[in-house]
Design a protein that fits this description.
The protein is of the alpha+beta class. It is built from 8 helices and 20 strands. It starts with 6 loop residues before the first strand and ends with a strand. Bound molecules: adenosine-5'-triphosphate. Pfam families: ABC_tran, OB_MalK. InterPro entries: AAA+_ATPase, ABC_SmlMolc_Importer, ABC_transporter-like_ATP-bd, ABC_transporter-like_CS, Mo/tungstate-bd_C_term_dom, OB_MalK-like, P-loop_NTPase.
């Protein structure tokens, strides 16, 4: 990051007692105006990170800094941070405008300013015409927009979003992802989103923090994570990746199950070093029998424009490849033999064995 971070975690740990560590030594810098997602499997520490930032949970070690100042001692309501939760926690007995204005009235904001800011926030989330509606009469997506408006109306420096879309159905969720991204662009506020959905994280984040077992595995842009996963965990968690056991040959290439491929970084390793080769399904193509690696097709699944082929290589490793339907002429029926090569121009990824 080139600018000074807005929010930093320095060596943050959370020990829940009884040997349960929610977080282990987390370091994280987030710039002003960034959209950052915390992504990882259930129990990896995403929500705990958010709760430590919000002030709902004290860290047992480390510091939380905002603009370079330690805020770990500040109670949640004195931090310039707001949270939107998964279950669109709205007050059911209030109408839309009352819900959105609630936080402002608690802070003693005058009636006129409250009315103006509530109207602005409702416009921002596309509910400008629903101000007087009882929230009980709204759909799930509309309620989540009310929760968003209620959070942004207080103009926090950081907006924390804890799986805000996970209660919505798939198509509404996709639409709301775009809206969330647009909203963040317009506001310029720093957004930190917790999600276990990699597609969601990849599509809306500036950077993604991949977490595993209470630790950070990698922090990178979506494209970097996809193209250059730093660990086996990230490689297998982001998209689909074939992970094949291989060995470095003498000339900077890697040999694996019938493939011999040039791989960036292999030249720096001694010949014979055991490595893992990461190959994306879309980077593999069918080759004439006799060339490339030998493959026995197990299952073919229709994916629209492409066919996902699951097969077995010579050494028994399972491999997944996506064959464009227009290029599927050489594809045998399930049980048949084929050959596999790396698409020209595509790269394999070098990972630890
Ligand atoms: P999910 O996606 O399921 O919400 P998560 O990544 O948000 O998971 P956390 O809720 O942060 O994970 O939990 C991290 C770890 O800390 C888990 O092992 C969890 O069981 C543990 N944990 C979380 N809160 C508490 C608590 N209050 N007391 C004890 N252990 C806790």
């Amino acid at each position: 990051m080139t600018t000074d971070p807005l929010l930093s975690l320095r060596g943050v740990s959370k020990d829940f007692g009884g040997g349960v560590f929610g977080l282990k030594d987390i370091d994280l810098d987030i710039a002003s105006g960034e959209f950052v997602s915390l992504l990882g499997p259930s129990g990896c520490g995403k929500t705990t990170t958010l709760r430590v930032i919000a002030g709902f949970e004290p860290a047992t070690a480390g510091e939380v800094l905002l603009n370079g100042r330690e805020i770990g001692h500040l109670p949640a309501n004195r931090r310039p941070v707001n949270t939107v939760f998964q279950d669109y926690a709205v007050f059911p007995h209030m109408n839309v405008a009352e819900n959105v204005g609630f936080g402002l009235s608690v802070r003693g904001t005058g009636a006129r300013e409250t009315t103006r800011r509530v109207a602005e926030a409702l416009e921002m989330v596309g509910l400008g015409d629903k101000a007087k509606r009882p929230v009980a009469a709204l759909s799930g997506g509309q309620r989540q927009r009310v929760a968003l408006a209620r959070a942004i109306v207080c103009e926090p420096q950081v907006l924390l979003l804890d799986e805000p879309l996970s209660a919505l159905d798939a198509s509404l969720r996709e639409q709301m992802q775009v809206e969330l991204k647009n909203l963040q662009n317009r506001l310029g506020t720093t957004f930190i989103l917790v999600t276990h959905d990699q597609t969601e994280a990849l599509s809306i984040s500036d950077r993604i923090v991949v977490m595993n077992g209470g630790q950070v595995e990698q922090i990178a842009t979506p494209a970097e994570l996809y193209d250059r996963p730093a660990t086996r965990f990230v490689a297998s968690f982001i998209g689909t990746m074939n992970l094949l056991a291989g060995r470095v040959t003498g000339d900077g290439q890697v040999e694996s199950a019938g493939f011999v491929l040039p791989v960036e970084g292999a030249g720096a390793l001694a010949a014979g070093t055991a490595v893992t080769l990461g190959l994306r399904p879309e980077d593999l193509i069918l080759a004439p029998i006799g060339a490339g690696a030998r493959l026995t097709v197990k299952t073919t699944v229709f994916h629209g424009r492409s066919l996902r082929v699951i097969g077995r290589l010579n050494d028994g490793a399972e491999v997944v490849l996506d064959v464009q339907r227009a290029a599927s002429a050489g594809l045998p029926a399930d049980g048949g033999a084929a050959a596999l090569a790396l698409r020209p121009g595509a790269g394999a990824i070098l990972l630890p064995a």
